[in-house]
Design brief:
50% of the residues lie in helices and 6% in strands. With 428 residues, it is mainly alpha-helical. β5 and β6 form a beta hairpin. α14 runs parallel beside α17. It is globular. It binds s-citryldethia Coenzyme A. S-citryldethia Coenzyme A binds next to α17.
């Protein structure tokens, strides 16, 4: 049975097809609306628009539910590993032990960078933001890995996907090393994906780096929490770039650029900077007042979400992980106390309750990353590292969709209607 919805517009009565997913809101198929009515829909920010169909991630913002290929994020964070989640997002199923071993081996064989790419770093100032370096170096990968840039070849698409997942930790670690003037560390394939990232970041050639299992597990869980999130701004950027047939490296570079914004992935850096600026619990009311003041552009960074109108399930896991990591590392951080108090005060304030503003994934992540030893400027680069698997999974899904076509939105034009050119001498 095909459901329809009636629409009366431009003097016409239309039956619009209602499409049903496996779970979540139905959608109105408006693909023929313009042809039938000469009208567009209007939805800046896409608050009520489904841009595609996807089988990868499902979010129920009212219930605070996040599923990756049907598996709840809480279970994956607790019981899985980032390599397992990468296999799940890319291939649709949790791997068997043999599949996981093969996948992890494949990824570990792509962790090195072409040696000439190391010279790209020397072109940046030492104080360049790591996200500027990530945009540049990831975009440049297409100049070195042309043998996996043909998007019409599924084999090349999968090699490019593996290369991107494998090389992001190397690229991010090199950005950090460059910023502190230490030598780049080579990948070590005898370590886990996350352990290898930690040794490339914090290891030095002068001595053997010993991976701290507490930190390795926390970092791996943070990567899981950031892996994918439906059609967020940066994923939509990757899909739109990919819809033109651009190579996968260019598409991921576009996603990194979008993620950098403080309203999106840049919020984790902004949130910790905000918590540090607040400094003490007694100053929280001043900042909550500013966040509520319409004349003040200040917002509580790490709070609010386009989809979650309930607690972001990732923030719940992140807060638990902060307690574990700080406890096991024997670290106390007054910023965490400020974060906990700020959450309590905000969630009891009518403004935040009415607008359904809860902590999101970015609110607590910085506390852990800071405790592990990352500077705030690296936080969004770590988000990009983890989100790469989600970007490439969504990109692959789009490219292999037989109905895929270039994305090309229209507009409501509000500029001048046609007028004739005025010669320079005749202008007033
Ligand atoms: C991520 O999309 C994703 O899935 C993203 C992400 C992912 O995994 O990919 O989850 C990652 O980007 C998380 C969000 C990180 N950003 C921040 O923490 C920045 C602070 N948050 C806001 O800028 C805001 O909440 C957004 C951008 C996250 C969502 O903005 P929306 O959906 O466009 O909502 P809005 O700006 O229209 O706000 C609705 C109301 C407004 O008030 P009114 O105009 O209705 O009076 O809520 C207010 C806003 O002023 N509001 C806030 C607020 N967030 C929204 N007020 C104070 N502090 C805030 N943080």
């Amino acid at each position: 049975m095909t459901d329809t919805a009636k629409l009366s517009a431009a003097g016409k009565d239309l039956d619009l097809k209602v499409m049903h997913g496996s779970v979540g809101p139905d959608v109105l198929d408006i693909r023929k609306l313009y042809a039938q009515t000469g009208m567009f829909t209007y939805d800046p920010g896409f608050t009520s628009t489904a841009s595609c169909d996807s089988a990868i991630t499902y979010i129920d913002g009212d219930e605070g539910v996040l599923l990756h290929r049907g598996y709840p994020i809480g279970q994956l964070a607790e019981q899985s590993s980032f390599m397992e989640v990468c296999h799940l997002l890319l291939n649709g199923e949790l791997p068997t032990q043999d599949e996981l071993d093969k996948f992890s081996y494949t990824i570990s064989r792509h962790t090195m960078l072409h040696e000439q790419l190391a010279t790209f770093y020397r072109g940046f100032r030492r104080d360049a933001h790591p996200m500027a370096i990530m945009c540049g170096v990831v975009g440049a990968l297409s100049a070195f890995y042309q043998d996996s840039a043909d998007i019409t070849d599924p084999q090349q698409r999968m090699i490019a996907s593996h290369r991107l997942i494998a090389k992001m930790p190397t690229i991010a670690a090199m950005a950090y090393k460059y910023s502190i003037g230490q030598p780049f560390m080579h990948p070590k394939n005898n370590l886990s994906y996350t352990g290898n990232f930690l040794q490339m970041t914090f290891g030095v050639p002068a001595e053997e780096y010993v991976v701290n299992p507490v930190v390795e597990k926390a970092m791996d869980r943070i990567f899981i929490l950031h892996a994918d999130h439906e059609q967020n701004a940066s994923t939509s950027t990757v899909r739109l770039a990919g819809s033109s047939g651009a190579n996968p490296f260019a598409c991921i570079a576009a996603g990194i650029a979008c993620l950098w914004g403080p309203a999106h992935g840049g919020a984790n850096e902004a949130a910790l900077n905000m918590l540090r600026e607040i400094g003490t619990v007694d100053r929280i009311p001043e900042y909550i007042a500013r966040a509520k003041d319409k004349n003040d552009p200040f917002r509580l960074m790490g709070f609010g979400h386009r989809v979650y109108k309930n607690y972001d399930p990732r923030a719940t896991v992140m807060q638990q992980t902060v307690r574990e990591v700080l406890g096991e590392l024997g670290v106390t951080d007054p910023v965490f106390d400020v974060a906990i108090a700020l959450e309590e005060m905000a969630l009891s304030d009518p403004y935040f309750i009415e607008k359904k503003l809860f902590p999101n994934v970015d609110f607590y992540s910085g506390v852990i990353l800071s405790a592990i030893g990352f500077p705030t400027t690296m936080f969004t680069a770590l988000f990009a590292l983890a989100r790469t698997v989600g970007w490439v999974a969504q990109w692959n899904e789009m490219i292999s969709d037989p109905e895929q076509k270039i994305g090309r939105p229209r507009q409501l034009y509000t500029g001048p209607t046609q007028r004739d050119y005025v010669a320079l001498g005749d202008r007033k």
